């Protein structure tokens, strides 16, 4: 019978048999899958695991801290953090095209991760790489086992030939809700286990226009309010994802106090979905939408207008870029 405890015991035995006394590395993204995969491997082989977290500066408010503090505190995992915000923002400077943004972020990510993996390898002689591949990913990619391949959620190519690791994929037979159950059983913070899916390129593809630090901060502030109010209303589980999008190149006239404003709109894009292939706009209660709108326009000075996206997928996509 399927219980989180059975699966954990099973996987721990399998991982121990595969890894033996060798060293393992795992990249953490801030998402559920890599967090649970790493926690399982840590339970199996403890200190033989080193995790790497590349902070590209494109995460939402508090997410990097959750990985660096709460996750580490709850698991005891050894974590190497690479602060790469400046590097990513430098590479993204002035870039407006969505696919170009993705390419740049994917390329920088693999370079930074590779450099970190080389350092860990030099210290510890790493043989294995953990990937948080889920069953739907296995089916989608034709079911084969790969060699080291940082597909994760960045959809970029593998590591170079001279840096080859064998893969450990403890979530290969599981669905997302099962992974969440394992994560909870392993004692991971609820904020990580219950997190909505989040794209690898992060907030960069939720800023329509070029990305910079100030725009990211504006979007992070608006996004945090939307998340807080969704949670306060008890609606996290009703929504698949809730992108908040900053239309950074659009301005509209508004009025506040006795002054005219000329600020930016943000778009609320809450969607319901089973698998992200199709989606519908979530019918959030209007009082929740109203609260989010009031708070964002009051608390984020750069934003003077909040709009609700009422497009299904298709024809819209979930993300705006
Ligand atoms: P769309 O916008 O195509 O998104 O309806 C479908 C799902 O994929 C996520 N998404 C991405 N995930 N890298 C990712 O890792 C990406 O470049 C990317 N683009 C979209 C999106 O958040 C949704 O869950």
From TrEMBL:
GO terms for molecular function: ATP binding; GMP synthase activity. Keywords: ATP-binding, Glutamine amidotransferase, GMP biosynthesis, Ligase, Nucleotide-binding, Purine biosynthesis. Pathway: Purine metabolism; GMP biosynthesis; GMP from XMP (L-Gln route): step 1/1. It catalyses: XMP + L-glutamine + ATP + H2O = GMP + L-glutamate + AMP + diphosphate + 2 H(+). Its EC number is 6.3.5.2. GO terms for cellular component: cytosol. ATP binds at residues 29-35. Residues 2-195 form the GMPS ATP-PPase domain. It is an enzyme of class 6 (ligase). It comes from the Bacteria. Coiled coil: none annotated. Homodimer. Catalyzes the synthesis of GMP from XMP. This is GMP synthase [glutamine-hydrolyzing]. It comes from Spirilliplanes yamanashiensis. The lineage of its organism: Bacteria, Bacillati, Actinomycetota, Actinomycetes, Micromonosporales. The gene is guaA_1. The chain holds residues 195 to 515 of 515 of the full protein.
């Amino acid at each position: 019978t399927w219980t989180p405890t059975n699966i954990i015991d099973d996987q721990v035995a399998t991982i121990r048999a595969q890894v033996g006394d060798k060293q393992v590395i795992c990249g953490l993204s801030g998402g559920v899958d890599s967090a649970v995969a790493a926690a399982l491997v840590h339970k199996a082989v403890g200190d033989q695991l080193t995790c790497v977290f590349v902070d590209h500066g494109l995460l939402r408010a508090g997410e990097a801290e959750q990985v660096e503090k709460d996750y580490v505190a709850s698991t005891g995992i050894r974590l190497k953090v690479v602060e790469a915000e400046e590097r990513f923002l430098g590479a993204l400077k002035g870039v407006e095209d969505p696919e170009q943004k993705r390419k740049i972020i994917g390329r920088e990510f693999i370079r930074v991760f590779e450099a970190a993996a080389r350092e860990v390898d030099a210290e510890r002689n790493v043989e294995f790489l953990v990937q948080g591949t889920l069953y739907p990913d296995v089916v989608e990619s034709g079911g084969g086992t790969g060699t080291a391949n940082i597909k994760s959620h960045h959809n970029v190519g593998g590591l170079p030939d001279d840096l080859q690791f064998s893969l450990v994929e403890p979530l290969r037979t599981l669905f997302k809700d099962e992974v969440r159950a394992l994560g909870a059983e392993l004692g991971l913070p609820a904020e990580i286990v219950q997190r909505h899916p989040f794209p690898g390129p992060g907030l960069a593809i939720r800023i329509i226009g070029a990305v910079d630090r100030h725009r990211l901060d504006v979007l992070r502030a608006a996004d945090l309010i939307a998340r807080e109010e969704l949670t306060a209303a008890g609606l996290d589980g009703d929504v698949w994802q809730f992108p908040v999008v900053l239309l950074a190149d659009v301005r509209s006239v508004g009025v506040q106090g006795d002054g005219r404003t000329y600020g930016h709109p943000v778009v609320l894009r809450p969607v319901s979905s089973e698998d992200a292939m199709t989606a519908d706009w979530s019918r959030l209660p209007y009082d929740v939408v109203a609260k989010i709108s009031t708070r964002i326009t009051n608390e984020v000075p750069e934003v003077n207008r909040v709009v609700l996206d009422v497009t299904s997928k298709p024809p819209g996509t979930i993300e705006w870029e």
